[in-house]
Structures are given as structure tokens and as C-alpha cells.
Amino acid sequence: MWNIQRVLLPLSGVASKLSLATFFPSSSRLFMPSDIAPPPTHSDSAQAPINADLTKEQKLHLYREMVRIRRFETTSLQHYQAGRMGGFLHLYIGQESVAVGTISLMGEHDHVITAYRDHGHALAVGMSMDECMAELFGKGTGCSKGKGGSMHYFDPSRNYWGGHGIVAGQTPLGLGLAYGLKYRELKGAAICFLGDGAVNQGAFHESLNLAALWNLPVIYVIENNGYSMGTSQSRSSAYPSALAQRAEAYGMDWEVFNGEDIYEVRARTQVAIDRAHNESRPTLLEIATYRWEGHSVADANKMKYRTKEEVERFQKEHDPIQVWKARLLKEGVATEEDLIAINKEAQAEAEASAEFAKSSDYPEPESIFEDVYWEVDQQTDAGQTGRHFFND
Ligand SMILES: Cc1ncc(C[n+]2csc(CCOP(=O)(O)OP(=O)(O)O)c2C)c(N)n1
Ligand SMILES: [Mg+2]
Fold first, then answer.
1. What pTM value is reported for the model?
2. What is 64-361's CATH number?
3. Is 117 in the pocket of ligand 1 (CB under 6 A)?
């Protein structure tokens, strides 16, 4: 809690007292929250119909998709460090079960939109490693023609609407997707991912308000990986309870659960999808997860706001791929050799995608003005007269 004396003391001239502890009373813990732990998983998630009905092949598919994301990203990291990519690279390693679990539930009219940590979601919706890797290399064969980079993957043909760099900027857009579904009377949901650092942005709260007010089929998924950019959740959010509890202010359903077990992710997310499809009502989910790498690869302070022990604990005990692997072995779905083979295939696919990216051409300089406004590219009246953009 704020202590008024601690705040006033520095103002009365005792500048030496002005330390982080003044503003963050237990700052040492806030800097190093090495006690963070995911919530327990529900014991009945594996038996939920959506999971009980999974075939052996579907279970292996979930494993393959998570491993593909991991191999894609470790390969991209090597090429980033070799100086072959410009811009930032935000890795999703450690969070794979969230994208793969939620997106595995998507039907024909379900749509996805996310922030800049977008590689996992893109591969999970079915975008190819080639187009994703080439985008990182800035090549014309990339999914955004090499002009978007890591943070701006797009594929509307797969109901995948980006890839957004402005924190929470995707949240009103996700609302618009849901509005479009309702307007067209389609039975679908807009799944909008955001980070724990986006929950205090005004645009997000405006979106929650409209989602509830207009009963829109949107599912906001907070991927709570414990940290935003160089800071922990406890240093950035005043409200000490669940981030998703903010939904109560808008009369919206919400839930918090553990994201490391893909059964759990699927079982709990399906409830929100059913609510969107059948009742056209929004949900705010908070999925506890963990990012292994720095905020981006260029995060020089990545070990200053958390401990090495904490990172290693999550890597050893909460790796979603290892958790799922253990399940598959226990259920007799696969042997150790089967899973090694899947890893090798994914590694080969990732390496081939890097070769594809390297040998692709950069976009032509003249194309820099293309793909900015649809109206201009399509030469519509508005695109030619500019009236669409400026009232005259
Ligand atoms: C409006 C805005 N403010 C600040 C930034 C700089 N910024 C980029 S990422 C980030 C942290 C977001 O953290 P979180 O939402 O938890 O997502 P994560 O990186 O953990 O996936 C910040 C502050 C930005 N991109 N946009
Ligand atoms: Mg975060």
C-alpha cells in the first residue's frame, strides 16, 4: 500500500530518500518475484468432451505443432544473432501450449488477432514456416511481403488478422472482428490475444465495455507470462488479484487457469467459445504461462528483473512441450522414438525455411508504397481521389 510519509518525504527536500522503495514499498520482491507459480490445473480437464474425443493422431498433431513453433524460433534466433534480420524478434518459447491449444478449437468462422509475439499463433493457424521465416529475413516471399517483419505476420485467408506492435492496439480490432461476425449473423468467435502488460491500456477497457454492452462474441485471452517489457506484473498492475477479474467491472464472464497443460487450455477455452457461439457473449480469459527468453532478443536486462533460478525452474518443471510429452507417453499414444522423429522433422523444416528465406529476394524498392491502403492498391474512387481519407 502507498505510504503517504514515504511519498511526501522526498518532496520536502530529502532527496536521498527518493529510491525505488519509495514508490514500490517492497521493491526487492517486486524486482525478483522468484516465487511466481502457475495455478493448479483442473483434474477433470483431460475428461472434458473436447479432449476425451481426441484421436491419437490429433494428440500427436498438438505435439507436432508445439514442437514446430519451438524449432522455428530456435532456428530464427540463430539467424537473428548472425545479423541476417532487422528489427526486433520477440520469441514465444515457453508459451506454445496457449496458441496451439486455443487455436486447435477454431472452426470456420472463428478468427484470431494478436500482439507482436505472433509467430506461434501464425504457425498454429497453418501459415507455413517458409513464409514466416522469409518475413523475418525481410524478403518479398514473406507473409507480409517482407515489409512487416516479426511483429506483423498476417494471413486473412486463415482468419489470422496480425501481428500488432502497439500494446493493446489489437484489442479494439478484435472487437471489430466480433462485431462483423454478429452483424453478418455468423456463428463464430474472435479470439484476441494480449499480454499481461496490455491490461491497463485504455483501449482495452473501452473494448471490454463495448463487448459487454453489445454482447459481442469476442474472447480476450491474456497470456500472462509474468512480465511485460523489463518489468513484472506486480510492478505494473495496482490491482493485486487476477488480471482477468477486471471483467467484473463490465459484467463479463472471466476465468484464470494454467496454460502449461494443453488439455487444460482446450477444456477451459472451449467454454468461452461455446458462450460466444451460442449466446453471443464475451469472455475474458487469463492463461498463466511463462516466456523463457528476454522480452525481445535485444533485451539486455533480461536477468535483472527475474532470477536465473526462476527461469530454470519454469524450463525444468513447466515446459508445456515436456508436460504434453509425458502425457503422450503415459497414455501410450507415442513412444520416445516417435517423438524424437517429430522433433527431427520439425528441425529439418525450420532449417529448410531458413534456406528458403536466404535465397529469396528482397522486395523491390518501388513496392514500398503498395499494401498501405487497400483503396489505393485497388484503384477505387476513394483511392484515386483521396476522399476516403480526407473530407473536403
Ligand atoms: C502503446 C505502447 N506502449 C509501449 C510500447 C512498448 N512496449 C512494447 S512491448 C511492451 C510490453 C508488453 O508486455 P505484455 O503485454 O505483457 O506482452 P509480452 O511481451 O509479455 O508478450 C511495451 C511496454 C508499445 N509497443 N506500445
Ligand atoms: Mg507479458
1. 0.91
2. 3.40.50.970
3. yes
